[in-house]
Amino acid sequence: MQHGPAVRRRKLGAELRALRTSAGLTSGEAARLAGWHQSKVSRIETGTSGVKPADVRSLLDVYGVADRQLRELLLVLSGSGDDGGRHHWWHAYRGVLPPTYRDFISLESQASAMRTLETTVIPGLLQTPEYARAVTEAALEGTSAERLDALVEVRLARQDVLRAEPPLELSAVLDEAVLRREVGGPGVMSRQLNRLVEAARLPHVRLQVLPFSAGAHIGVTGPFVIFSFSRTSDLDVVVLDHLTSSLHLERKEDLRAYVEAFNGLSHHALSPEDSLDFIAGTTAGA
Questions:
Q1: Which long-range contacts (CB under 8 A, 24 or more apart) does 269-272 make?
Q2: Where does the record place the HTH cro/C1-type domain (predicted)?
């Protein structure tokens, strides 16, 4: 269990080591071709030191990696501010976003799929502007109007991953409490539930409701997110949010446990079709 940057370094190092092996090079040969000392390659591969985006590019060139999407992903893990020409939009909000939130957005922007359990609020990727503002204002009581505006802008900008090509595949299990908790007043909540109905009809969005009648479940321990990446499962990670920080779980046994937990929750939840009816019914009664 580690904070985001340490996880990224270790995952980046492991992937670069695998690419070196696939290229048929020893660490010494890779270092010579890059014009470095062998110890630098070793430190990068073990994740014991940070690595500059320029160094990642050099190694990828040495290993003959031409896959643009994989190169972009590895540059994100290195903390690059440029992924082959497309600037990371969230860097403009460095003054208002804590590092853990920037880490989360960077993973979200490059993931191919996201599985999430939400027990208290609508997933950020599906929030309306009014709902996002009400939730943010409640979570950060006393924050300035300027900072509140910026955080809402970030929340809405994150939703572009659902409109990308290809879009992020989103699977969400929502505890019924998420639908019942009135955020921002009846009007805001009604429009938010309508937004959920619209989202549930998208081919790359799968929503399931876990009704109160399902009783106690493994999700009572709290919400979580599982990010998956199309190029390699070794980069998959679980993110747990806390009040002041986020924790990342990267061990295979942790990933397996959370995937099994999500699958179990999906099994006990209503089907996507029944969930759509449930949300629509909740909207009618809102």
A1: 269/173, 269/208, 269/209, 269/210, 269/211, 269/214, 270/208, 270/209, 270/210, 270/211, 271/208, 272/200, 272/206, 272/207, 272/208
A2: 16-70
Structure confidence at residue 124 (pLDDT):
95
pLDDT higher than threshold 80 for residue 83: no
Neighbour tally for 233: CB within 10 Å = 10
Nearest-5° angle of CA 68, CA 73, CA 76?
125
Q: pTM higher than 0.85, yes or no?
A: no
